[in-house]
Amino acid sequence: MTDGASDGPRVHGTAIVEPGASVGAGTSIWHHAHVRAGASLGAGCVVGKNVYVDAHVVVGDRCKLQNNVSVYDGVTIGDDVFVGPAATFTNDRVPRAFNTDWRITPTVVRDGASIGANATVVCGVTIGELAMVAAGATVTRDVAAHELVGGTPARRLGWVCRLGHVVSREEHAPPTWACGTCGTVC
Questions:
Q1: Nearest CA to 1 among 46, 38, 37?
Q2: Sequence-distant contacts of 169-172: CB under 8 A, at least 24 apart
């Protein structure tokens, strides 16, 4: 890994960070990752092996994009977001190889959310603050703050505390709760 300054980003020699990409202080970009021009990665992020970050993607501070994640143009990721290995974001609702008039459909992931390994996030959704998407899920609709979803298509499985522990399996989120596992009050 090379280091431009003591607190600057660290970029592995096999990674590609195109001119015009913005990479925050303390961010690590590992083997064979590719960050396109116009992308913005915040401070203190970890970008794993073989991750692809497309042009105009915005990733907040302290995020973890695990190995083989694909984040395409139109995606905005907040602070402290975890994206598990091989998760993918789409950006076109009606993809055709021959369509020259396609439009990017934006997707937003709010602060503190977690997306499990091999999950697919279909464009046009918002994943709420501190929400949790299970491994292998296909997200086709918005996910509320603190909501736990899983399956294909993803459906509500419950509600989670700040640390990700299940606090309720009810249809609607409790107005407030104290997590029985960690004591976090939400």
A1: 46
A2: none
Strand partners, 17: 35
Q: Residue 107 corresponds to which tokens in the numbers above?
A: 């997707």
Q: What are the angstrom distances between the C-alpha of 72 and each of 20, 44, 64, 173?
A: 17, 21, 16, 31
Tokens for 111, please give them.
């602060």
Structure tokens at 73: 């143009």
pLDDT, mean of residues 159-166: 93
Question: DSSP labels for 3-36?
Answer: ESSTTS-EE-TT-EE-TT-EE-TT-EE-TT-EE-
What's the whole-model pTM score? Answer: 0.94
pLDDT (tens digit per residue) in 36-87: 999 999 999 999 999 999 999 999 999 999 999 999 999 999 999 999 999 9
* Beta bridge partner(s), residue 114: 82, 132
Strands 40-41, 58-59: parallel, antiparallel or unpaired by DSSP? parallel
Report the distance separating Cα 16 and Cα 11, nearest Å: 8
Whether residue 130 contacts residue 145, with contact meaning beta carbons closer than 8 Å, is answered with yes
Task: Give the C-alpha separation, 179 to 161, whole Å.
Answer: 6
The residue with greater pLDDT, 124 or 4, is 124
pLDDT digits (tens, 9 = 90+) for 78-135: 999 999 999 999 999 999 999 888 899 999 999 999 999 999 999 999 999 999 999 9
